[in-house]
Structure formats: structure tokens, C-alpha cells
Amino acid sequence: MSITRISTEAEAPPTHTSVPASRRRTLKPRRSSALTIIYWMLLAYFLLPLVWLLINSTKSNEDLFTTFGLAFPAQWNVVANLQSLVTYQDGIFVRWFANTVLYAVVGAGGAAILAAMGGYALAKFDFPGRRATLITILGATAVPGTALAVPTYMLFSQWGLINTELAVIIPALVSPFGLFLMMVYAADAVPDTLLEAARIDGAGELRTFWTIAFRLLAPGFVTVLLFQLVATWNNYFLPLIVLNQAEKFPLTVGLSQWNKLANAGGVNVAEPLYPLVIVGSLVAILPLCVAFIFLQRYWQSGIAAGSVKQ
Amino acid sequence: MVVFAICVIAPLVYALVISFFRNQLVGGTVFVGFANYLRAVADPLLHEGAARVVLFVLVQVPIMLFISLTAALALDSGRMRGSKAVRLGLFLPYAVPSVVAALMWGYIFGGQFGLVGQISRSIGVSVPDLLGPALMLPSIGNIVTWSMVGYNMLIFYAALRAIPLEVYEASAIDGAGEYRKAWSIKLPALRPAMLIALVFSAIGSLQLFNEPSILQALRPSVISTNYTPNLYAYSLSFLGGQINYAAAIAILMGAITVVIAFIAQGTAAGYRRVAK
User: B230-246: buried (b, 16+ CB within 10 Å) or exposed (e) per residue?
Assistant: First the structure.
């Protein structure tokens, strides 16, 4: 190993000897300005809508139509916008926000626990039908939620679950991808010898899972939790069709209803709705954007495990 | 497992059952066999939506994956300044709900206080209506690409990071340059990840619903109720009351999805065998 490293350092141009030899970057550290410029431009394009949203959330309805889209208004209206956001229609937006938190936390938390238990069981136990279960799960990872939404609606209306919180939460509990990820993770992270030791010490299977395996599975658990949180928080099609009372809506459905109203109503609507849709969108995306910025380690490792092992 | 069965298998079975029936004004619900499917296969409204999403898959998915792939290669080459910011910034849109993404881009492209219109007016260049009939589909493609490039980029990037260091060292000794390395080492190593990304993107795009549904509020005249098959199934069951026919369409689309996934898994297994 040390021999190869010396040889690469000898071959590399002399400009980058300051870079630590242990890092892979030593092989190609020359910075390219053209590459940097291209990707910073791409980055700017990707951040443009978010910047636009941030700037325009500070504008009154009048400024929205009269000032340039990327210029801040003369009069900052962000506090007034937030005020009307939480008071409009008796503060229904606050309700939507609370609903979204409820659906996302219960749905994603439940999905992550189920995925951890199921993945652990699939990785560490041999039971009849294990192979068939595996194949079904792999197949199900490819079926997107939207494809199941209409059939789910039909089944739930038969069961009288329409317009209940359960209609949104139950489908959110299923994460074939999370299950698959936890299975791969459990196979590596939980040593069989440790489980045997626990059994010899007289611990029951459930106790072994909670006190030993679950702790070892914690990083994978957080990753599944995060991705399922995003999926549930951003879900639109399913809640749109299984809920029909505004008080039960999550943010996505609520905002789209306001958008419809803003475009259709115009003159009839007492309050101009565009600023509310814009500032509401900002409030709706902030929690997840912040979570993603602070939990980078988890989503990066999750994607890595999912793509390399599959 | 029980929850899994309730949410994945039960709805499919139920939809399959009701797709064989028809609700009639006289006589209630009657068994009609494959009549709903025959109707779907011959329905020009469904054809129109299906053709549109197929076109979308053929154009948008390659463009998106090309951007993701080149971005991942650029990140991995380590020759870019501020690559951490680029990685985070390109991925951030994944956290934005498609509803909000469609709202933002819809407003930016739209006529009322749209950024594009403002810029084009101020520099005196006329830009065609981005939400008009001709450019609506490319605009939707832009939104989906914006949302998903970062995710696919990270999948490719993770696969690139898994290439052992020794391979690069050997190639450096053999005198391979950057492009040679990208072509002969990195792209072959990315093949399985690319296949997965391709299949998942194609499946996702065939189910296109959220973006057109939001933009429909902005331009009801451009986005018809059968703009995509999913939108059509939604309109049929919730606005038209034809729930049995909608179930048949949902099953048909689901079946196509499963076939694609199945073929892809076979191909992926083939790759793994070749690799070994």
C-alpha cells in the first residue's frame, strides 16, 4: 500500500503536494475554473426558485405585481403576510401545518419502526415464505405511491376510512424501500454472535431486539425515518383523494386549494391570496430544508447503501 | 407484514375486482368482464395521455440523467471549487414538495407576476408563453428535472465513491488521463446505478400527476382532464363518477409499471452475473 502511494505522489504534478496523501483527491487535485463556473451556474439555476420564493414572501399583493421578481420591495410585508397566513379562514393554515406534522411524524416514525423490525427479521431469521416475501418487497420498491392511490381510495371507501386521519397514515406506514434498506443494514450491523450471547443469557427475542439489535440499527433507522418523513410530508395525490374536509388537509393539498382559489376567484376573494400561497409555501418547505441541511450525514449514507447494494 | 399486505396487495386486488364491474343507472352494479379494459384500450382520451407521458419519459428522463451523471462525475473528479455547496444545493429541491415546486415554477413562468416575463420585457425580447399548449410539457419536464437531478446525482456519486482507490492508481500508472478514466473506469462502474435510476425515473414519470394537477389551476385550458393517464383516472373517478372504469385504467398502468420493473430486475441480475 505504501509503495503505491509513493509512486502516485511522484507522478503527480508538483502543485498539490500540500494535500494529505491519505485522501483520494491526491490523484487529481488540479482545480478547473471552467468546471467550477459551469456548476456554479447550474447551482444558481437550482436555487433560483427558492430565492424567488424567499424574496417574494416579503411582498404585499400590490408589490408582487409591480416590482421586479428578484428585487426586495420598498415596504417589507413579511410580518403582515405571516399574520394573514395564520388568521385567514380562522387560521386553517395552522391546522394544515399541524396535520402535516401529525401525518409525517406518525407515518414516518411507524414506517421506520416497522422497517427496522421487518428488516431485522428478514436478515436474521429463516422462516417459511422468506424468499417469497423478499421477492415481493423487491418488486414493491418499484411501485410508486401514486400508482396505488386510486385503488387505495376505492378500498378505503369500502371500509369507511375516507376522510379520516388513518386513511393518510396507514399507507404512509409502508416503505418497501425502507424495509429493504434495513434488511441490508441489519445483515451487516448486527453480529450473529451477539444475538447468540443474548439468547444464552436468557433474553427473549423481543428483549434482544429492543435492547441490542435496535441500538445497532439506529443510524439506518434515522435514514429511513428521514426519507419517509420527506415522502409523507410531500405527499399530495393520496391525501387529495382520501380527504374531503379542509380541516383534515395537509399543507400540500391546502396550498393547492388556495392556488386554485387565487387563480379562479380574483375579484370575489376578500383577501388577495397570492401572497398567502407564496409565504405558505415557504413555511411548508422550511422544516424539511433545514432538516436536510443538518442531517446530511444520514441521507448521504442512505442513498449510498441503497444504490450500491441494490 | 400485515400492514404491507393491507396497503399494497389489498388495494390492487380490490381494484382488480371492481374493474370487472360497471355501475349502471338501471340495474346497479353488474359484472361486465373485460369490457372496461377493452374500453380503455380503445379510448382515444387515454391514448392521448399515455402518448404524452411516453414522450415525456423519452425526452425528460435522458436529459435529467445526463445532468445528474455529469454532475456526479464533476463532483467525483474533485476539480471543482465549492463542490460541497453544489452537492447540497442540487439535492435541496428533493426536499421541496412537488406541489410547491410546481407552484414556484408556475408563478415564475406565468404571465401575472412571472419572472421570465419581467426579464424579457425589460430587455425587449419576446419569449413564447412557457405555460402555453406548445411549451407546457417541457415546462413540466423542467420542474421534474429540477426536483430529481440531485437525488440521481447522489446515487451516481455514491457508486463512484465505491470504486476502489487501487483501480485509479493502476490507471494512473498506465498513463490514463481524466477523460480516459471517466470513460473506461467510471462509466462502466456506473452501469447498475444508471439502470436503477433509469427504471425508477421512467416509472415515476409514467405516473405523472402532481405537477400537471397544480398547473391545471393556472392554465385550465392547456391541461385537459386527460393530460396524463393518472389525471384521467382521477378525473373519471372523482369528477365523472366512473370509478370502475378508473380502476381498470389504474390496473392497466400498474401492470405496465410492474412489467418494466420486472424486465429491469432481470437485466440487473444479468449484469450481476456478468460482473461475477
Answer: bbbbbbbbbeeebbbbb
